[in-house]
Amino acid sequence: MTCDQSDILLTEQEAQRLFSILGYMTNFRSPKKQKYTLDDCREFAPFTLAINRLKKEKGAIILAHYYSNPEITFGIADFRGDSYALSKQAADARENIIVFCGVSFMAETAKIISPQKKVYLPALKAGCSLADAVSEQDVINLKARYPKAQVICYINSTAAVKAQSDICVTSSNVYDIVAASPAEQIIFIPDIYMADNIKIELDRRGIKKEIIPFGGTCCVHDKYTPKLVEETRQKYPQAKIICHPECPSDVCLLCDFVGSTSAMIKYVRQTPAVEFAILSEDGIVNTMQYENTEKVFYNYSRTCGSMKRNTLANTLAVLQNPAPEAEIIVEAQVAQNAKRAIDNMFKEVEKK
Ligand code: 13P
Ligand code: SF4
Predict the structure, then answer these.
(1) CATH code for residues 131-218
(2) How many A from CA of 286 to the centre of ligand 2?
């Protein structure tokens, strides 16, 4: 066999490998939202082969949030997870190079936790409407106004905002950390819908605390409405409707299950229900489709454009010859203060 022939065979084998996974998933980029085809996978294969070879040669690890494109999460990532799991993974990784297929605040968190490692974000400066909603000065002003309050920041925030906060949380631990807080007054940033959901959960647990919300909303989850949930119930009475706590509280109250990205994935895996409407991001539906091939997912998910800016092409570029803007840099003092807030979260979670 010639070199060219063996390359063609390898590429076809890789396309078949990808298709054996992606074939179960909706290609949300396709005009009619059809399933991934073998031809889609043939386009991905030369990239995934090159990336998987190069990451070994360079001693890099690829971490990908569940919301990344599936050719990334399932084709090249060494680990896919929600924001909590990915930060733990960044802390524990033995590799000196982390390629983070996520958004800026996630890659920044990895750098804060592992300052000695090089961290790259393929989707240059990929933003998040929540992280953009609060500035460092906003937190300084809030602290001056409420000097006795504890500052709890959702991980979807910049390093400078984390540095001004007492403790960080993710959607997988927010309720327990807020409930366990010794403070009676809590400034919660930057998700005002999550703050509403916290108040409801504290009431449900019979815990009295004043929550002072400040910030904005997630531009993906804030679009869901109670009307949509009611219409979905009528249309698909057997379907379980599930959502992320970044959704408005009047939506969450109508859903069958509310949870972090990983909690929703676990719920779908474990419940005997077969029909679902997922009020969250497309990427988690892809993971659910792969894990639950016999279950039906109606088309309710939305796209986080920032997450989808990570592509095989820009991930390969970062491994081959990274643009200076692809490397995540966090000023040393900011990183040190932000790390305290993240470590406080790890300590709280480990107490359980
Ligand atoms: P998770 O913490 O569930 O991964 O959520 C992160 C996020 O950005 C959700 O929109
Ligand atoms: Fe930010 Fe929303 Fe995208 Fe999550 S889905 S990264 S909160 S914009």
Answers:
(1) 3.40.50.10800
(2) 17
Ramachandran sector of residue 202 (left: φ over 0; alpha: ψ -120 to 50; beta: rest): alpha
* Residue whose tokens read 């390969």: 316
CATH number of the domain at 3-126+307-326, please? 3.40.50.10800
Q: Kindly list the domain boundaries of the chain, sorted by start residue.
A: 3-126+307-326, 131-218, 221-298
pLDDT digits (tens, 9 = 90+) for 294-324: 999 999 999 999 999 999 999 999 999 999 9
221-298 matches 131-218 in CATH topology: yes
Q: Give the pLDDT of residue 125.
A: 86
Q: What is the pTM of this model?
A: 0.95
Within 8 A by CB and 6+ apart from 225, the residues are 248, 251
Ligand showing the shortest atom-to-Cα distance for residue 174? 1
251-290 burial: b if 16+ Cβ within 10 Å, else e: bbebbbbbbbbbbbbebbeeeebeebbbbbbbbbbbbbbb
What is the atom index within ligand 2 of the atom nearest the CA of 281?
Answer: 5
Ligand 1 atom with the smallest distance to the CA of 218 is 10
